[in-house]
Amino acid sequence: MKLSKERVAALSASLVDKLIAGGMIEPVGERKALVVSLERVVTDELSVEDRINAQAKELMGKYEAEIAKGHLDEHQVFLMIKKQLVKDKDAIL
């Protein structure tokens, strides 16, 4: 994740305030609970790419010998695996 927890918290609080001020949402509970929920959702979404990268690196083990021999480009293999994982998971990065 490229944003710190503090930055995610600040962005979440700002977004909740703007949505409330703009009349786009009307919270039924405490504002803080809404902010915490939004922080969790944003953090989960931001970590999707990290999880996909980790899984792609794991799957690259299958091609380790070919990469070592110089038959395959490590970066290209990583990108192809990552692209397929994104497609399989219907993720948006």
User: What is the averaged pLDDT score?
Assistant: 93
- Total count of helical runs of at least 4 residues: 5
Low-confidence stretches: none
Shape: elongated
Beta content comes to under 5%
Name the assembly state.
Answer: single chain
Q: How many runs of DSSP E, i.e. beta strands?
A: 0
Q: How many domain units?
A: 2
Amino- and carboxy-terminal Cα gap: 12 Å
Order of helices and strands, N to C? Answer: HHHHH
Relative helix content: over 70%
Which structural category fits the helices and strands? mainly alpha
What characterizes the major β-sheet?
A: none
Rg is 19 Å
Descriptive account of the structure:
- This protein has helices at about 5-20, 30-45, 50-60, 65-70, 75-90.
- The model has no long low-confidence stretch (mean pLDDT about 95).
- It is mostly helical.
- The protein is elongated, with a radius of gyration of 19 Å.
- Helix 1 crosses helix 2 and helix 3 (about 50-60) crosses helix 5 (about 75-90).
- The longest helix has 17 residues, at about 5-20.
- The protein starts with a helix and ends with a helix.
- The protein folds into two domains: about 1-45; about 45-93.
Secondary structure blueprint with pairings:
Blueprint: H1 5-21, H2 31-46, H3 48-59, H4 64-68, H5 74-89
Give descriptors for this structure.
93 residues; 0% strand; elongated; 71% helix
In summary, what is this structure?
By secondary structure, the protein is an all-alpha fold. Helices cover 71% and strands 0% of the residues.
